[in-house]
């Protein structure tokens, strides 16, 4: 029997009603030690679950499955769950914040005054079909332990009405950074009136999102020791500066949920579906380095959870260890922490911890370094055990955090289903287990635990960094608890207080505490007070770890134009220490330091150490790795690649003199740049006419109030259209701009339309002449003749065309289908851009090409009143998954696209079975360009 494949799921039949007792909107609400739990229904008439029709019981997926009626899994009161933990000798877990105060916590973070922010993913897997995932009811709450008894009793919702927020990062007094699913912007939310709830929302940065289900989008915005902000999935990093947020490319971290760093500042990323730590060998900002074979000790991927019996593994019976009913291979890791506190045994310090919520374990990892390469060992593998286990099937450890009190906190979502609905369809093994044990009924709960040890007391000192002077914060850079060191550094950098620079220099040079010296260097770097002389002095330090930090921090000065440091980096490639050599070689590749290739070959010939050989080889021949779950390097055609190569030659021979080899702007003296940075530039990423007009006619004067030592951007219009297109394309495609290329035809159009421009533009003149993206507001109305959900958990809406959620007709394209935008007031429209993702027809080699979902043929009309329409395009043909429709400027209030050609379903095969593919009309990431008063 042939089935029909579509790109949407049914709309939720009813909204999930959250138990009223789980509200946490009131501040100063006292901790209720009698939790009110959601209880599975129908405990008398147990559900009958059967194998789906055609299930092959000889297949490992189904073989041996038990589908007899079972008593439902019942959520336990906190103290009863506590009794189910199996801990190592001397350890205990203590609840510090639980439901009803919080619901479905996914992560926590602390601010400089020790207040704990909780990311509450209140819509995660409320049903087996993940209905309501994108309802705007999630939140970030803030909590305090005012009476200092160890329980966070005071607090409530800080930011509400969020659509599955991706992360929370405390960012100064009373502020957090976060973003929602299926969006592209990060915002800062601030409580300006000190009532415990944010009342101000400010833009922080953009171009940050990814499409996909909620488990595959970016997460965990994290402040690294190098003062950059990192996230999972995204192959870039961003950084707050007094002049705005900047961006740089990094390697692909292949992570999903969790980032941490060790004492030396190296980031550790946590993979998700593979169940393994990722990208931990070298700092990710050096780019992609492939390390094989040595990453994990033998048997590392085998979890040793306690018997839970229910065998609810997405991989089917082949993923189950019987008779315990436990996971036999890690598959769903989440949350991580390099423990750096001071109130647990020393043997835990510097160890890596992460949760495996499918296996119901917290794992302790010992990283062992040999010849510069790290191998991870499960500390309790020989005992066939884990650091923490539980016999409670609802224990779901999703985050670990070194806390201000020196212990480690464990975020436990305490949830029934821990697998996104895309993998729990009707007829699947996991769906059968969910229904058998009524796991879908256990929602709205959550617990945060403190890990204690009998030989230690938690630190009861309450942080008050936001209330202290900068000079007082310097002492914390030597604190034995890494949280205090990190937070003091962050607060000092956010303040940009250069008055402490002399004391920081003294600390970096003379302190007996190596870690304090590290942080002193990074504070100096973060406040713009780092000196090349200090960097060179630290490069000669007797401790190789300090030499590495000096090289790392000095990269900022090199990128700012102190090219003299290049000789120091080349010299460090011959250091006596293996790790120093490796880092120097990576720095040489990253910064494109002259002489790197020759020096690396010399080092490799003299040193056969495994790490030196691996890094050296990949410095000489860099590997290419696609980013994970999202935007990756475009697969350019030969013609496009040739255009970019020509643009690279133009930039390197001409433009880099003023804009810098890395596009960050070359120093021009007096603390100014010769020309503006091109990296992650809104101007560069905006309408392509901005770059084209600048290259053709030049620009002079200040840009957004900033002056540059270069006299002007000289006009380049004497070059032909292809030359201009090549230079513009290279700039737009590189330096973290990730924007569309420019064609010679684009240049010819702009050249013809600007023949009257006889002198260079000023910035205001140029900006006023270039179409801008019109940002949708609540006043915009998007409607369509047909609308269907694009993915599970979504709420179908034509507005989805303007974000990553997307919009689709849900059925095959038919003449007469339409999509319409109504603006709150007339605007001049010049272009329409959107993406139409293709439908895959299989994943096997030789599978048929994908089916395109862009409009095959359409009319484009405008209207001022929605009644009288003017046709701008008639029977226009779609031709690309990334559509760019250019029209003559037209003033309008209504814009409507109507299909003029019908299509038909496509017969094919998916996973070896015959299937009909609906040739839907799909749009997402839509942008209207033009002018609006």
UniProtKB/TrEMBL annotation:
Residue intervals of the F5/8 type C domain: 768-897
Instruction: List the keywords (alphabetical).
Output: Heme, Iron, Metal-binding, Signal
Q: Which residues form a coiled coil?
A: none
Cytochrome c domain residues: 642-735
- Annotated signal sequence is 1-25
KW Metal-binding (keyword) present: yes
Q: Which PROSITE patterns match?
A: CYTC, FA58C_3, PROKAR_LIPOPROTEIN
Q: Please, which domain of life does this record's source organism belong to? A: Bacteria
One short Pfam family name for this protein? Answer: F5_F8_type_C
Tagged with keyword ATP-binding: no
The molecule here is called Discoidin domain-containing protein
Q: Write down the species.
A: Imperialibacter roseus
